[in-house]
């Protein structure tokens, strides 16, 4: 559960902040899965990882489904609003000539993972490799608009938010009928994830990414889709141990890349403790229920909130919206918690397109 926890991101902007104009707007590029998607998969005709139908979006402005995997807003939406910038649009909604490319893009795709085989049974999704390819095309479009020098500057000064890894476990390794769970031990699997991620982060660096926040995984063993596998309905300790090992390895990888790459400012945002506290102590945050979801989902057929699903009477009482994703209310708590430490100064400037 790679919930957007950005509490460690602030220092990235500190050195540049003093020189930025007060009216500057942040350029952000977002890579991720269903926790940060804002609608890419609804443009994939055969994707089974979709949320562009009721009851998703019931609490989003307008009350309609947008492709976000929650009843309302993502944490990214909320933080963008606080910053006074629009939430970056889904990549697949834009043309290569769109001026919106200059102010940030969201490449996140439900079902996506670090590994290309992750989420295979969703038929269509943008894996992390696919998302990086999309960013490469974005940079070419930006270069055509404002020139190579300005494009390189934009990409160097932009912020990159990455939240991936949940599906590599939930929709890959932990599925007994898929090959990776049979082929690898847990140690071998995390090694595969880290070696693949190293190549992917290196590619982003080559494409111009300098200020990168990688969001660690939350306690996946405590999300509703995993709790139902426990006879007592408790968190799955083994799954959470996998997550902690993954987070530890990513943190070490980030440190290694910072030493290796000049001017790289990568950071690991550890969200595990914050999310676990919200789940373990829901009443402290104004919630009543954190062990099951507001939407009465069928975990035997995926765990998403289908149009014929029954909703809870008070959506603000629940930490989880469906078997995988936090509710709008939970996202609001986490966004508020993290926002004050996100940015210590003014973000980087988004240039205007050439006439």
UniProtKB/TrEMBL annotation:
Protein origin, superkingdom: Eukaryota
Keyword Metal-binding listed: no
Cellular-component GO terms for this entry: extracellular region
Key word Signal present: yes
GO molecular function: hydrolase activity, acting on ester bonds
Localization, UniProt: Secreted
Signal sequence coordinates: 1-17
UniProt cross-references to Pfam families, sorted A to Z: Lipase_GDSL (PF00657)
UniProt keyword annotations, A-Z: Hydrolase, Lipid degradation, Lipid metabolism, Secreted, Signal
Any Gene Ontology biological process: lipid catabolic process
PANTHER family in the record: GDSL-LIKE LIPASE/ACYLHYDROLASE-RELATED, OS02G0732800 PROTEIN
Family under the similarity heading: Belongs to the 'GDSL' lipolytic enzyme family.
Protein name in UniProt: GDSL esterase/lipase
Native organism: Salix koriyanagi
